[in-house]
Amino acid sequence: MPAQQLAGSRIREKRLDRGLKQAVVAEIVGISPSYLNLIEHNRRRIGGKILADIARALDVDASLLIDGVDAALLDEMRHAAALLGPDVEVEKAEECAARYPGWSALIATQSRRITALQTQVQALSDRMTHDPALAAALHEVISTVSAIRSSSSILVGPEHLDDDWQRRFHHNIHDDSLRLAESSEALISYLQAPEAQSDTAMSAFEQMESWLAQSGFHLPALEKGGADTGAFVKASGLTGASAALLKAHAEVYAEDAVALPLAKFEKACRAHAYDPAAIAQHFFQPLPRVLRRLACLPPEAGHPPMALAVCDAAGVLTFVKPVPGFSMPRAGGACPLWPLFLALNRPGQPIRLEVALPGVNASHALCYAVATVRDATHFDVPPAVQSIMLVVPDPETNLGAPQPVGVACRICPRSDCASRREPAVSGVSVQTAL
């Protein structure tokens, strides 16, 4: 259902919050209670004077009654529904977000936390299986417990021990207990993530992207030539693998900024209507560089929102800059990323594809993708190929019939999809879903 048509649900919610009856509000506005009932059940469009009168009667801003649901919140609610399966009324997600924004935000927050905890459990499971340091720590704990048990069993045994031997066993138990306390404390510190990081991603890639998201992926410190990427990474506070990934990203960012200075690049973007191919020809620069620069334009400068995804030759995502309303999952169903994977099969050939999410009023997106060889080719060594895709939601350009895609198989209503891996959710149709 379009966001504009959900104004009735918001009117009903505000009226109930204030404890007003339909007849009272209808009398104030000057309409019949039956007509107001139709409006509240989204069976009549509303606007103009009636909307303004209802807003005054409810003592709210009219914009609060007509604004649509936040696309990012709705996208997160759909992912939360995908975790549970067919028991969720997916087709009512937008109405729920419109009528109960607070509860919807709680659902989205809890879904993110569950996902983070599942990732953490998986990471810990991998560490327990493959990490030799952890295996040694566990072995130390078990060995110490066994030693304490052995000494204590002798002390409580039927044989009488003289005072000297008792002191020795007591001393051994004391030393082993201290060793057990130290090894247990070290093991707990090794396994337990800090509370402040309980909601952060365990993946180094996701840690880097989370840090970049705080600045909208635009890095003013690297826009000028001669930027010290080492100092930049040190100031970020990231460590380990995430810091190494950020340094590699910063070095590429700095090179792109020198080749395509921001002021000239912004001017060319507006002149060429953000067409990557035209901009690349204007500057005589490779298309991947242009796609990267488009994705990191300063968000406060009025540029359209754009997403970016990068993957390696195996199809593993190595970088994701999301955009509200267009899902790009790292795992599970990833058909919104088809243009990115399609480019891997055609290295060097730029691909432009318009895609559409399910539903009559669902959003479209224009995807630009290209795969390139990162390193020089050597004999008997396969080339390192990288694919990059820029996503422009709700484009003004119409390329004709878009490529249908879905968010996740569990909640995708496209029953005729040949690539489906799970059955369609029962009772969900293309006309009502999402």
Keywords:
434 Repressor (Amino-terminal Domain); 9% strand; 6-stranded mixed sheet; alpha+beta; single chain; 434 residues; 17 helices; 50% helix; disordered C terminus
Describe this structure in words.
This protein has 434 residues and is of the alpha+beta class. Among the domains are: 3-105, Orthogonal Bundle (434 Repressor (Amino-terminal Domain)); 131-195. 50% of the residues lie in helices and 9% in strands. It has 17 helices and 6 strands. The protein has a 6-stranded mixed beta sheet, with helices on both faces. A hairpin with a 7-residue loop joins strand 3 (351-356) and strand 4. Helix 11 (204-213) packs across helix 13.
- Structural category is alpha+beta
Helix content: 40-55%
- What is the CATH homologous superfamily assignment of the domain at 3-105? lambda repressor-like DNA-binding domains
Listing every helix as H and every strand as E from the N terminus to the C terminus, the arrangement reads: HHHHHHHHHHHHHHHHEEHEEEE
Shape estimate: extended
Brief description of this entry?
The model is unreliable at 193-201 and 425-434 (pLDDT under 50). The protein contains 17 helices and six strands. It is of the alpha+beta class and 434 residues long.
